[in-house]
Design a protein that fits this description.
It is built from 13 helices and 22 strands. It has 449 residues and is an alpha/beta fold. It has two domains: 142 residues, Lyase, Ornithine Decarboxylase, Chain A, domain 1 (Beta Barrel), CATH 2.40.37.10; 255 residues, Alanine racemase (TIM Barrel, Alpha-Beta Barrel), CATH 3.20.20. Helix 2 packs parallel to helix 10 and helix 8 runs parallel beside helix 10. The longest helix is centred in the middle third of the chain and has 21 residues. It is globular, with a radius of gyration of 24 Å. Bound molecules: pyridoxal-5'-phosphate. Pyridoxal-5'-phosphate (PLP) binds next to helix 11.
């Protein structure tokens, strides 16, 4: 006999995909002519096209929303800015001003954080590839070292013999959170006992200050409950450490990975409808921690290393139409001066593309190409778009995460980056590259001179 299905209460969610009118679904695209009251045409006139723009206002508002979500639910909360998400000095310094520590994953980023004036004991050093020199410096600086694997653990114990300072360490833990594929390549696994084994080796060595437990369960995680599962497992480890060693850890670091509101390719509904809010993530994480058996007198500080969800909305990419072409299939296409080499995330997001000036209301299903001489240089395979002329401007929204760090120099210079401050003044925060800045790193052997 067929088993009766469990009743699930219906949920009504607002869909923002559009409302049909008498012509069908509205596909009229509204122009975006200004960012924070600054005219896009003025920005392009001053800094060239294409050009990246960062809104300080949006950075601040998003940060305050995120902080509010966690600090209203948990007594001690500390954010650490994930450098690799966007390590422009202006961006990092803004987050440090707002109170964020630094989260770095290489020696390069570690030194960048130091030169941005971050106190060394407020730098979290993650990642699988830390050199012995990096580790020694981090130990002497009292930075927080998050151990990724056993080789690194043994290296730290060895280095601890050579310096006065006790290394301040945490371990990165990976676990089954119910979201697959599991990110089990970083850190020590919870279920197979590696995490507990690493903790025991460190605690019994008496050579380190065992500060905390860290996880970073993935990126663009679209469900809050996965974080609840992860937090529960870290809390279990904290309780085991209390019981066995009578030691209280100082913090639990839940990493990053919160989804921004971008829409993944192939998604049925826009990301604005499907991605959890900061409140959703905060609810899952803090429920797990306050409901755990951790001694309430010694609640660990909750660290968060969210990157993408903080900066994505603050970033814009402005560009210009190079030309239009009717494809042999009859399809409309347009060519922009924005290639996938500077908009890396176009490989997995359907980015929002808008005209930067008023256009006809008539749109046609259009393929949007970049300027590179490469077939894969496609910004959007298909979107309803008006016919725009050579030299007219476009805006791509929500691109603040990863593009300004993962971009590739290819065929031409990488563009300038501009920050709009809260008074609506623009500041150049990275110059457009020049032939010199690129060729500077090259050497020509004598016999080819
Ligand atoms: C990349 C990274 C982050 C930030 O991830 P987002 O997905 O951008 O939030 C945080 N912590 C660690 C260890 C990372 O590697």
């Amino acid at each position: 006999m067929m088993k009766k299905k469990i009743f699930e209460k219906p949920i009504i969610t607002k869909i923002n995909a559009g409302v049909p009118d008498k012509f069908g679904m509205q596909n009229q695209i509204k122009a975006i002519t200004h960012i924070d009251q600054v005219a896009i045409k003025d920005i392009i006139a001053e800094y060239g096209s294409p050009v990246f723009v960062i809104s300080e206002q949006t950075m601040e508002e998003t940060y305050e929303t995120a902080l509010q979500a966690f600090s209203t639910r948990y007594p001690k909360v500390q954010f650490a800015w994930s450098y690799k998400t966007n390590y422009l000095n202006a961006v990092c310094r803004k987050y440090h001003q707002l109170g964020s520590w630094a989260e770095v994953v290489s020696g390069f980023e570690y030194h960048k954080a130091l030169s941005n004036g971050v106190e060394p004991n407020k730098i979290i050093f993650n990642g699988p590839d830390k050199s012995d020199e990096d580790l020694l410096l981090a130990i002497e600086n009292k930075s927080l070292i998050h151990i990724d694997h056993f080789e690194e653990l043994y290296t730290i114990l060895k280095l601890a013999n050579t310096t006065e300072n006790k290394p301040k360490v945490a371990i990165r833990v990976n676990m089954d959170t119910g979201v697959y594929p599991m990110w089990d390549r970083f850190g020590f696994n919870y279920e197979n006992g590696d995490a507990w084994n690493a903790i025991n080796r460190l605690m019994l060595s008496k050579k380190v200050d065992f500060m905390g437990l860290h996880t970073h369960i993935g990126t663009y995680i679209m469900v809050g409950w996965a974080y609840g599962n992860a937090a529960k497992k870290l809390a279990d480890l904290a309780v085991k450490i209390e019981k066995k060693f009578n030691h209280y850890i100082k913090y639990i670091d839940m990493g990053g990975g919160f989804a921004s509101k971008n829409t993944l390719k192939g998604a049925f509904l826009p990301g604005t409808d499907t991605c959890p809010s900061f409140d959703d993530y905060a609810e899952s994480i803090t429920n797990a921690l306050i409901g755990s058996d951790i001694n309430p007198e010694h609640m660990p500080t909750l660290f968060l290393e969210t990157g993408r969800a903080l900066i994505d909305d603050a970033g814009y990419l402005l560009g210009s139409i190079i030309g239009n072409k009717r494809l042999t299939s009859g399809r409309a296409s347009t060519i922009l001066d924005i290639g996938v080499n500077i908009l890396f995330t176009s490989f997995w997001y359907d980015h929002l593309l808008y005209p930067a000036e008023e256009t006809s209301n008539y749109t046609e299903d259009t393929t949007v190409y970049g300027p590179l001489c490469m077939n894969i240089d496609v910004i959007r395979e298909s979107l309803p778009f008006p016919n725009m002329k050579k030299g007219q401007h476009v805006v791509i929204k929500r691109i603040g995460a990863y593009n300004m760090t993962q971009w590739m120099q290819f065929i031409t210079h990488r563009p300038a980056i501009v920050m709009i401050d809260k008074e609506g003044k623009t500041h150049l925060v990275r110059k457009r590259e020049t032939n010199e800045s690129i060729v500077n790193e090259e050497l020509v052997p004598d016999y080819l001179q």
